[in-house]
């Protein structure tokens, strides 16, 4: 290739670039529509991928054997002790951090109330609170001429 051919090729490329730059941009609604289409396609792809993973795990689920079904069930008495220890640990950590910040010993106070089978008092309390709220009358609404333009 000589320089003349190379210059002609460069000129044709710049002509194409000028024509492409002279085109009007697409309308805004088309960009919104394309964005929505991309999101819908991505969500559909995620749905299909999760469905395939679910089918894989359902297909390859371990089968129950007789030995597993005949195994003795762990006693339920140990479960509350373990859950109480798990609940008290974060409280102890929070108390230790608070005592460190304040430089004074902290005391943990936990209040628990037994569950009531009849909670009419709670419903009556809500009704009393809602009854104390009075409905406000709407103010006179003027026309749009009263709205100030900012």
Textual characterization of the structure:
- The protein is mostly helical.
- The two termini are 66 Å apart.
- The protein has 5 helices and no strands.
- 63% of the residues lie in helices and 0% in strands.
- It is elongated and about 95 Å long.
- The mean pLDDT is 75.
C-alpha termini separation: 66 Å
Could you tell me the number of beta strands? 0
| Helical run tally | 5
Q: Mean pLDDT, as a whole number?
A: 75
Oligomer: single chain
Q: What series of H and E elements makes up the topology?
A: HHHHH
**How large a portion of the residues is in β-strands, by DSSP E?**
under 5%
* Rg over C-alpha atoms, rounded to the nearest angstrom: 36 Å
> Structural class of the secondary elements?
mainly alpha
Helix amount: 55-70%
Low-confidence stretches are: none
- What is the approximate shape? elongated
Largest pleated sheet: none
């Amino acid at each position: 290739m000589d320089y003349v051919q190379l210059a002609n090729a460069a000129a044709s490329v710049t002509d194409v670039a000028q024509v492409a730059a002279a085109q009007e941009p697409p309308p805004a609604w088309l960009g919104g529509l394309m964005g929505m289409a991309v999101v819908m396609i991505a969500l559909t792809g995620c749905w299909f991928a999760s469905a395939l993973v679910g089918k894989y795990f359902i297909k390859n689920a371990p089968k129950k054997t007789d030995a597993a079904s005949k195994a003795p069930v762990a006693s339920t008495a140990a479960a509350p002790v373990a859950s109480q220890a798990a609940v008290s640990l974060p409280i102890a950590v929070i108390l230790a951090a608070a005592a460190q910040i304040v430089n004074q010993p902290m005391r943990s106070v936990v209040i628990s109330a037994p569950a009531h089978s009849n909670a009419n008092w709670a419903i009556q309390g809500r009704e009393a609170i809602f009854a104390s709220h009075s409905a406000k009358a709407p103010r006179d609404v003027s026309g749009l001429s009263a709205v100030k333009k900012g």
